[in-house]
Specification:
This protein is an alpha/beta fold. Helices cover about 35% and strands about 30% of the residues. The strands form 2 sheets. A 9-stranded mixed sheet has the order 14-13-12-11-7-10-9-8-15. A 6-stranded parallel sheet has the order 3-2-1-4-5-6, with helices on both faces. The longest helix is centred in the last third of the chain and has 20 residues.
């Protein structure tokens, strides 16, 4: 494909260097043309490491580069809205790292600003772009596991010793719900095709980590008595799993959000492994984004989905701090 979407990256975050930039570079539609940091030496070093042609010493310089079509924003959570609004004003399409904002109000403002500027906005939940989630949805719809009775999701890791990590800055949008709890929350909404009615979440608020939720366990109530139970954490052993429980069987996804794409279906007929292609979800995300920018097809996920996900996250955080069940309106 000769046509390429020219990307700029605002910041040198680990997720950008490890995953998103290589994913864009390996996509069919994208090229990373520039990277910016407030530390020009850091931008230059990253550009050299990842074969990016241009390095800027400020985000403003990159946004002023008229050759850039779209920007990826992997900045700390509290900066997502500011730089999305600035990018939209500069006429750049925006892929913003999850969670898209600090709350649903910010997310709605970002969606409105991008719509007004005529640019595409997407939240960087790369896992949703791998075809296995469509396969899982189709298995559920086929009735093979019967009626869905519940889901359980986990996403935990232990990085508590890194005291300077941005995840442990409360005012910057730190905490496990923002960082990893958002995954099982979004997955349940995706697979059930509806929004939860209420949430109840209990969290470990750590004084050693600026009071952010280092661990959280909760329940999202959906219609028909169906619920997602989940736990997430940044001070626990590593897991990232998803189970869909039905009346006649279940689906087990041992690595639900990262790593191996294969999963299992267990029914009275036995246990079968559903093999899935080892595709780069970050590359698929970039290609889906480009298709939406070029209006070849509609966005895989409407920007309003990000606002809806933030409403659930807002409710989860309120539930932790107020120690009560929160209805979502």
């Amino acid at each position: 494909m000769s046509k390429k979407l020219r990307w700029g990256v605002l910041g040198c975050a680990g997720i950008a260097k490890r995953s998103v930039i290589p994913g864009i570079q390996g996509s069919q539609t994208g090229e990373v043309a520039a990277i910016a940091s407030r530390d020009v030496a850091k931008a230059q070093e990253t550009a050299e490491q990842l074969n990016i042609p241009v390095a800027y010493g400020s985000y403003e310089e990159l946004l002023n580069d008229t050759s850039i079509d779209a920007v990826y924003i992997p900045l700390p959570n509290h900066l997502h809205m500011e730089w999305t609004l600035r990018a939209a004003q500069a006429g750049k399409h925006v892929l913003c790292e999850k969670p898209i904002a600090l709350n649903a109000s910010e997310a709605a403002r970002m969606v409105e600003a991008c719509a007004a500027a005529g640019v595409h906005l997407a939240e960087a939940f790369m896992y949703r772009h791998h075809p296995r989630y469509e396969v899982i949805k189709n298995i559920i719809a086929s009735g093979e596991i019967g009626e869905v009775r519940g889901l359980h999701g986990t996403f935990t890791f232990n990085n508590a010793g890194d005291s300077n990590n941005v995840r442990y800055r409360k005012e910057w949008g730190g905490g496990s719900i923002y960082d990893v709890g958002c995954y099982p929350i979004s997955a349940a909404r995706l697979l059930l095709g509806e929004e939860p009615e209420a949430v109840s979440v209990h969290g470990l608020l750590s004084p050693e980590h600026d009071g952010v939720d280092m661990m959280a366990s909760g329940m999202l109530e959906f219609s028909g008595g169906v619920a997602l139970t989940f736990d997430c954490g940044m001070w626990a052993d590593f897991r990232n799993t998803l189970e869909v429980l039905g009346t006649e069987g279940r689906i087990e996804v041992p690595t639900a959000f990262i790593q191996s794409p294969n999963f299992f279906v267990i029914t009275k007929e036995g246990k079968r492994e559903v093999e899935q292609p080892a595709l780069n979800a970050y590359s698929l995300q970039a290609d889906d984004f480009a298709a939406a920018v070029w209006k070849e097809r509609g966005p895989r996920f409407d920007p309003s989905d990000a606002v809806a996900n933030m409403k659930v996250i807002d409710a989860c955080l309120t539930s932790i701090h107020e120690r009560k069940r929160i209805e979502i309106r």
